[in-house]
Amino acid sequence: MNSNPSLISCICITGDKPFELQRALSCFIKQDYPNTELVISYPKDDSPTIDILNQLRKNYVTKIIRLERDRADTTSSARNAAIEIANGEFICMWHDEHWHHSNRITTQYSVLENGPFRCSFLSKILLYDLKYQMTYESRFKTWPESLLCDKQIMLEACLTYLEEPNAREINSYLFSKNVLYQISNASHLYIYIFDRLWKNRRSHHFKFPNAEGLTDINETIQDIIELDQYLLENKYKD
Q: Which residues of 176-194 are buried (b: 16+ CB within 10 A; e: fewer)?
């Protein structure tokens, strides 16, 4: 990595999830990439999130841009607004409910630095089923939650669609421009945490009729994603 690495803006769209958000913020703070900022969008009346961000500002030296939104705003419009005000040359999607390895940004940026590609994503990640407490490795897929992309190309993708683009449409645009690098050998960088009761009705990627859980690492994964260790304080605990 060169001595003047590009600024990477992580985009986090959140709301009323103080426990999960603190885990996502901790993952951001622990990134080993040296030049990042976090753009976080949340409802203007979301007091727990506001309290957490105020604590973060007092206790950590990190670049955070706060963007308050109306409750009625869609996730797509919130994402687009966050991308527009980001200062980074690159945008990194930062999902508030999931776990991110401290080496995630460095790994995804390293395949773009000084090369022809302008975006990268993880085509395999780890999936953790909260209901059955089991870890799986995903099937091969363009996981939009893991996208790291040149900001200008992201803006072009959003402007290409008159309606608010969804993740599938953005991926299709990026593929059409031949700018995407697929990382298929680093599933450990991202843990997608889901509730099987509703997630598996949305996508076949969350069904495991013939799959065996990763029992050798399952206990480690459970320890890694445990929420209590990430709490800034205990005021939100029952």
A: eeebbbbbeebbbbbbbbb
Residue 62 CB-density burial (10 A; 0-12 exposed, 13-18 middle, 19+ buried): middle
Q: State the CATH number of the domain containing residue 102.
A: 3.90.550.10
Strands 126-129 and 119-122: unpaired
Domain of residue 80 covers 8-230
Count of the separate structural domains present in the chain: 1
Does residue 1 form part of some domain? no
Residue 16 belongs to some domain of the structure: yes
Does residue 2 lie in a domain region?
A: no
pLDDT tens digit sequence for 58-70: 877 678 999 999 9
Segment 96-131, tens digit of pLDDT: 999 999 999 999 999 999 889 999 999 999 999 998
Report pTM.
0.90
Helix (H, G, I), strand (E, B) or coil at 183: strand
Residue pair 157/174 in contact (Cβ under 8 Å)? The answer is yes
Model pLDDT for residues 34-81, shown as the tens digit of each residue: 999 999 999 999 999 999 999 988 877 678 999 999 999 988 889 889
Vertex 166 angle, CA 32 and 171, to 5°: 60
Residue 201 lies in a domain: yes
